[in-house]
Amino acid sequence: MRVLRAIVFVILTILLVWVLDKPLGSLPAIGRLLDPVQGCLANAEPVNYDFSQNIKCTSLQHPVTVWLDNRMVPHIHATNDYDVYYTEGYIHAIFRLWQMDMETRAAAGRVSEVIGSKGFNYDRLQRRKGMVYAAENSLKAIEADPRAKLMLDAYSEGVNSYIATLRYRTLPLEYKLMGFTPEPWTNLKSALLLKYMADDLTGYSEDIPLTYLRDMLPAATFRALYPEKTQDSKPVIPTGTAFAPPSLAALPEPNDSVWSHFKASDFAQPRDEGKGSNNWVLSGNRTQSGAAILCNDPHLGINLPSLWFEVQLQAPGMNVYGVSLPGAPGVIIGFNDSITWGFTNNYRDVKDFYEVHRVKGGKDKYWFAGKQLGFDNRVERIKIKGKPDYLDTVRYTIQGPMLYDETYHGPGGLQKPMAMCWMAHRATSELLSVYLLNRATNYTEFVDAIMHFECPAQNMAYADKAGNIALWGQGQFVNKWKEQGRYIMNGADSAGLWKELIPMHENPHALNPGQGYLASANQSVTDSTYPYYYNGTFYEFRAWRINQVLDTMHKATVEDMFKLQNDTYSILAANMLPIMLSNISSINDKYTSEIKSWNYRLEAESKAATIFQVWWSYLYAGLWEERFKKVPDNLWPLPERTMQLIQTGQISSYCGKDNGMGTFEQVVQVSYQKTIDSLKKLETTTGLEWYKVKNTSIKHLTKLPAFSMPGLKIGGWGNVVNAAKGDHAPSWRMVVQMGKEIEAYAVYPGGQSGNPGSKYYADFVNDWVSGKYYRLQFFTNTAQQRSDKAKFTINFNPQ
User: Fold this and answer.
1) How far apart, in Å, are the Cα atoms of 552 and each of 7, 238, 549, 569, 648?
2) 303-327, pLDDT tens digit by residue?
């Protein structure tokens, strides 16, 4: 009996060990994960951990030294291009490998491989957009230039050299939790990351809802509610800028056959506010120091690990500092010995849609210009953890991939097949632009560099030590006829095809304007004198405020720039609140008492900010929700346009019983009653402080609460300069003064390490929340680098 019990015990032990060593469904191997030596506890980084080490690398050509400062920013010093990018890849992998892996999987539509069926819908959308197709096209362009190819080859080698050192114990924590291991890095992964950013910045399109609205509304009403440019816009390129005569002739507008038309039966069924970025530059005659100042704070999704990784790269002909994208070589936004630059999203439309007319009875053909053309089919194999692979055939037309078809419906359940033409599908080499930007020493070289930056379109601010300032609305654009691409086009009509590309040197730009500054905040790029047609989605509130402040600033300091980047003054509130209050003048409660003395700032602890924002959201919905309830994507008139209609009294034309509502005064009163009800609920739950209500949070990419930072005590919103919303916010605040000695300051909401068990994981967050900046340590020579400013040293040596 004892022998039998012993045998049973041994068998059970073997089974338990076997079970704990195997993944269970979506769960990783629990035994390995809980192993106190090899498992998740191995990722707990000691507070006094010494990052200094000596690393032997077979691919390295010459020794490289990396100095890590007290914020864990690596300063990489190499003697050639290959070694500097190899080392950058190795360093990125040390600190951010899992993030790089997941973001490129997300770009390629491969998330289901590691998280299972809950990632399937996302993956399928990515495949149908043609993300891998776009990255493959760009990789050909990148590798056609020896400089860009060397960047990628060296970078990939560096990442793979680090991956080769990993064992289960040293894997990043998330790999252990999710039960998978890193695969070799490739040049295509870096190209995918760049397309991932292009998709994030140019993915939004209003073509479908605008097409519906154009057919739904009287022409005059449509133009009044949905103008292509907001009245009184302060364009990026100052009004009155003289543009060179266009080299391409204006195209005639085709007849109505070019348009697609929608009706309610084509669909099976609030607009986001002011997501974007800010940058501006001031010439020396507007600064106290006499030196030009550049400021940039791109507003992007905020996550942990952070989107950005701070780094300095030194090699012959290059000494550059700024933020890089883990997964790609070079510095994206930053400065070097001579110049500084920063980006905001341009929002000029670079994505058009076409209704595809398939040949009846012929699944594999469609009509174009009176001819039957065959689709180019691309079979996408989507691997799903724990389930069979899914095969999705994406049909490519002459315009681009057929994003929507009978198996995959569009917004609002759109039933029509739709092809997408997107600038990011082209073979472009933004990486070459980064290579040249990092080495540019003057304005001419800056312009030469950005001529390779095609998509995503960006407003690129510039300043240099010589005192020059400039701003370009940069990207590759098409010479379009008026309104081409604003609405869905008939894919069978050849008039809708993209034709000639506008020479990039004719993109709107300004150099050393008389006003002494230039500012971009995702507003309209130019006034009506620009000779080429363009449309897009533009926002004005932040631009109005930034220009309002800069117009009166003549002795600006870097501290003034810090203050402006953190500014929470609401142009919307200042213009709307008095009107709103005048329509409820008979009400005098504690909420009206609170907002009557308010300073219109959306500060973190302001209760008045909450009262206004809640009230405005109800008023905005009250004006448009009923009237446009069938419109796809809930596309209502912009808040900027709504404000102008209210100020001028024109809003009354869109109120009344005929539009399913009462008078404007009645809408205001009803919206206030709804506000009171909401505020009372908030008082018993979150409280009325603005930061508690908007709940700006930095979530880990896995959404695990333990690795996230919710409820940050920060003010702002999308309609103010400090555009800190729920999960979008200033992702990198940078101020650079280009004096004899460069003064640079910055902060971002995260930390250099991607390891949740490291003290460097989120150590910048509290300073970012409070509006503090770090003086950046820009090393200019090796003697300075060897000073006590270097906390740790990593020596890379050829093996």
Assistant:
1) 87, 16, 6, 16, 27
2) 999 999 999 999 999 999 999 999 9
